Amino acid sequence: IELRFPDGPPTSQTSLPGSVHPTRPGSAGTANGHYFSDPDPLLEEILNEDYSEEMKAVASTMTPVQPSTIDILVSRCLCRPKPHLESHSLKRERNLLVALSTVSYCNASTSQWALLRSFYSSIAAMVPDHSISVSECPRKGSHWQVVGFQGSDPATDFRGTGILGLIQLYCMAKNLPEGKLAEIVHLSRKEPHDFPLAVVGINITAILITKLRNGELLESAVTTGGYLKAMNKLYQSCILLFCKQWREENCTVKDCQQILNRLALLLRNSQQTLLNSS
User: Fold this and answer.
1) Are the C-beta atoms of residues 268 and 239 closer than 8 Å to each other?
2) What is the dihedral of CA 148, 150, 152, 153, to 10 degrees?
3) Phi and psi for 61 in degrees, rounded to 5?
4) Which portions of the sequence form the region Disordered (predicted)?
5) pLDDT at residue 15, as a whole number
6) Of 5, 39, 96, 131, which sits 20 to 30 A from 211 (CA to CA)?
7) Stated pTM of the model
8) Alpha-carbon distance 138 to 29, whole Å?
9) Mean pLDDT to the nearest integer, 5-14
10) 3 state SS for the chain
């Protein structure tokens, strides 16, 4: 399976995948240097590093979120609730997440490595044939293919989603119930119907990034309390639905893009249904 990005070629990233650059300073935008809080200290650390240059670079590529004249007239004439407006905090979060999708994996970042290592450990522990070690995890090697990357260096697979793709893989492995995660891992390893789990997850992130950039996730963000929360809930529903259809239809790798296209359609038309199912 190849990585495919539904919105055309990936946005230029700030550095080559896996390149080494100095550890980023924390954001200086607030008194304590934090804009975003998260119960997971690893995520909070990454979200509050300084991405001001990337945020400025992607700002012009983001579609403004504002109700159309038709939406306003319909809400007034039919006494429907007013369309949601994007608050300053939500706009900043959307800007940050789009920026993260352009930030390459950094070998010098201990926090990024911690996310990647955690994802590997969670998935490797559930690989049914015990073909890889959970405790040993070199930065490069064939063991990454067992957990669903395309080659020996997982950083190259994040070229279209940046570290946002890594964040979503980490959150999936961390937040899914253990039984559900085990089912997904076992299904992804069951030949001849196996599929590269990490690559599928990164493709789902790529679809969500397009929706995020185009301003199509606002209602979900308002419902869940933030864009990242919305994206993670939608991501979780998508990966579960992907596996359900994969199993029911006895799919092989050649069917992967077809299911991803279905998910993209659902994300366009049925976000609330997906949120309710997660």
Assistant:
1) no
2) -100
3) -90, -5
4) 1-34
5) 42
6) 39
7) 0.86
8) 36
9) 45
10) CCCCCCCCCCCCCCCCCCCCCCCCCECCCCCCCCCCCCCCHHHHHHHCECCHHHHHHHHCCCCCCCCCHHHHHHHHHCCCCCCCCCCHHHHHHHHHHHHHCCCCCCCCCHHHHHHHHHHHHHHHCCCCCCCCCCCCCCCCCCHHHHCCCCCCCHHHHHCCCHHHHHHHHHHHHHHCCHHHHHHHHHHHCCCCCCCCHHHHHHHHHHHHHHHHHCCCCHHHHHHHCCHHHHHHHHHHHHHHHHHHHHHHCCCCHHHHHHHHHHHHHHHHHCHHHHHHHC
Report which residue type is found at 189: R
130's tokens: 């015990």
The percent of residues above 90 in pLDDT, for the chain, comes to 74
Distance separating alpha carbons of residues 181 and 240, to the nearest angstrom: 9
The tokens for 50 are: 């300084």
